[in-house]
Target: Flagellar P-ring protein
Amino acid sequence: MRWLASTRIALCVLALVLAPFEPALATNSRIKDIASLQSGRDNQLIGYGLVVGLQGTGDSLRSSPFTDQSMRAMLQNLGISTQGGQSNAKNVAAVMVTANLPPFASPGSRIDVTASSLGDSSSLRGGTLVMTSLTGADGQIYAVAQGSVIVSGFTAQGNAASVQEGITTSGRVPGGAIIERELPSKFKDSVNLVLQLRNADFTTALRIADTINAYAAANYGAPIAEARDSQEVVIQKPRTADLARLMADIENLVVATDSPAKVVINERTGTIVIGADVRVSRVAVAYGTLTVTVSETPQIVQPEPFSKGVTAVQDQTDIIAQKTGDKIAVVDGPDLRTLVSGLNSIGVKPDGIIAILQGIKSAGALQAELVLQ
Model:
């Protein structure tokens, strides 16, 4: 019998002196890549429908009574009487249909929809979504969906084994919905434009406003943009400007973006993401790993020949303690490359680097936000 136990001991992290550093270079990005138009957002649509034509993988009507009710209501609307008798067919499944209505979508254009099973259907592969109305949050019908459901996963099952890859109870209908109603508001009816930053930051918002005002001063003779807060920049429409052309020019302006320094750690997967602006004051880091191996090797002791002794078991325990990774390194991170090189020089794995970064943060030497996931 062998029993193995490992104990990892992380040594202390000592903060020494604060090291000077220079700010990192900002990244230049187009406004369209870091901000979105407030009036140009998607709208979510939802509907309830039926998928027919399944090969015995649909809902069992006893376990999913709403499927039977929906099927009977659909047949009655088509003029087919469903009085009396019960159907045991398993080629129909009730689904929830969802879609995103893109901004400025016009009637007659098509969008993709997703159909997800509501009952106990095992697969939607090979099914066809029957005409389904899609409504918005205001209860109005904005699109109608119908078409073949495309399922990427598959399931194979035998008497003693089964295999499944992906999800078979959810699929997509590419271009399956036709837009029937446009959104009430129109783009060119807007008095002003509101840009929303995807990553809220006061510095970036002010830079966007300054860049737009420099463009407006050269073309319209007056500033038109103002940073309302860390996420919104309001642009007043000049009287002589075409709103679509103005937005096309503004979204292609280049801005130097900024973001707070962060270190994101996922202890479950051992993932470490270090931002470019992360700084570490000069610290001395010692990391060691102590592995203790305990081996149990019981021995059988036989009695002397012709004696009245009995067979016994004698315990034998071997303990081995091994210490590795006892390097001491000075980590000084004026930039990302130096920080990573300093951590790698200690020769530890990602889980060890996670412990070191947490220790550096506790010592007050990590000049960034530590995000644990």
Notes: The chain has three domains: 1-26+258-373, 43-179, 187-257. Residues 187-257 form a domain with the Alpha-Beta Plaits fold (CATH 3.30.70.3400). The longest helix spans residues 202-219. Residues 54 and 100 are 26 Å apart (CA to CA).
